[in-house]
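Q: Here's a chain of 448 amino acids. Please give me its 3D structure as tokens.
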Amino acid sequence: MALAIAAVAMPASSSAAPHLRSGNGLDVVSQQRLDPRLLEATVKTSALPGPASVRILLPRGYAAHPGRRYPVLYLLHGTSGGASDWTEMGRAEQTTAGLPLIVVMPDIALNRDGGGWCTNWPNGPYSWERFHIDQLVPWTDANLRTRQTRGERAIAGLSQGGFCSTSYAARHPDLFGIALSYSGAPDIWYDPEVRAGAIAIINGTEVGLDHVPPNSMFGDPVTDGVNWAAHDPATLAENLGATDMYLFTGNGEPGPLDPPKPDPGTMSIEAAVHESTAKFHHRLDALGIPSHYDDYGPGTHTWPYWARDLRESVGPLMAAFKRRVAAPNAITYQSADDAYSVYGWRVRVHRTAREFSYLRHARCRRFTVAGSGSATVTTPRCLKPKGEYRVRIHGEHAAGRVRARASRSGRLRLRVPLGPPNPYQEYTAQAEAAGTAVYRTRVAIRSR
């Protein structure tokens, strides 16, 4: 009743909420306005077996300034949470009051007790990455007045959501120019010292909270370790060279925002994510990738610290939006997917077993591909439409020159030989014994 009275009393210029339309694979089942800035939508998608919630915080005066566009922050909850967490427990609405910013807070699990770990499950009915990346991001851009460059799109999350934010940023660096992790787990595979613990935690989430068989979310780490690595931010850290990274973590000891007797569980979890975050930070350092690393010492795995993390990072976040984090001049990217698209480049690999492939130092007319088998590479729209080109291919198992014609959109599609395909999937016992060979082929494109 109070909400209804408040809605009637608000001026028409500020009370008109945007109508959220279905599209991009999402069917809007219902929409409600919770307060002048906060919307909640329930959506259905073939990517998930049930409806999901999405909360949206609009900037003040959104309706009154129909010509204005805004940067977007995707803000993710953690295990045993939901889309409402950041507004109900994390003070997201108060923290972003007065800022020219749209905040999108989706479910990352349908079971309020569990978690989805932001993957397309190899053994289950959930395709979280398809929901969040392929559907939610373009749906948001279609429904709201967003700025749609990577430098004005950020992703953040707490705990499991911190894994998600860094994993999505590493897998899709052309979408997110800024990534933030609050007590997250950005290393679940790369460092052997944290791998076993991460596997145990994720298997425990599957069985104890989601009530599904172990190895549902990433696959069996013994036989499908490449899929774990393919989503692991630390393994993919090289992809983050042009991303603004913000990492916040406590050490698990009782801190200034804790009660006199903190829950031992919140202490041990924060100690574990502290190790994961520190390992990830060291990995970035080793690659020469800067990050804003706040190891704030005593603090447990609880909401007062995450609310503070958001409050302390929103200023640097808005400054980064103004700076508009640019795409790199030369693209370096690795993936274990059979096909991927990044910064306008398209790569499809042809091989016997799943393994990582690499696109390195890629500029419009010069790039290197690494892996085994062969790859079909399509350049971005950077060449003269229908232009004719001479292409030089040089590698350990490839040498020659070919002539090629660009498409009407200025793209060139090339088949690039690499080397004999590896017989065994990477990270399996057979591959460890035999080795996973990586062959490099350089390509140079010149006008005729």
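Q: Can you summarize the key feature?
A: Residues 2-323 form a domain with the Rossmann fold fold (CATH 3.40.50.1820).
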